[in-house]
Amino acid sequence: MATHIIYGLNAIKNLLSKNASIIKKIYIFNLNYRTFKLIKLAEYKNIKTYYCYSNNYNRFRYLRATYYLIMQVMDIHYSNVKLKTFLKKSNARILMLYKMQDPHNLASCIRSSEAFGVDCLILTKKDTAKVTTLLHNISHATSLLIPIFIIKNIKPVIALLKKNDIKIIGLSIKARSTTL
Fold it and tell me: 74-83: per-residue pLDDT in tens?
């Protein structure tokens, strides 16, 4: 299973409070009041913490100068089988994004989805920004709080949504878009 590096105090605080089970380790480079509170929360949740006062952690040297804490988290994968069982949940709020190529725009949609209580995201595999460490950090780790399903073809998923009586609302910025 792959791991991702999350940095930034807000992202780390967000994951510690909402989904600490995916956190593997926390590396501490600078101890101050804000980081001390987060470290205590991590220790309370039995997360391994490592104090890094020397240059032993060269792989983080580009982050060490800017960030006080760096967190290593497990990658989460959701399969299409789980999507079918997830859609059976009544009143599910789903955001489906098609060809969202810019990771900053995708991260913004993910942050907004988490704020508005969206239950899951569906992304197309082709022509969509990849779910990577960069996306996790741009989204302030909210991409690790919402299930994200990556699909190959959007048409069967739309048919599945209709079959499960889920209301579909489509938006487009193109002038020649058609009503669904």
Answer: 877 665 657 7
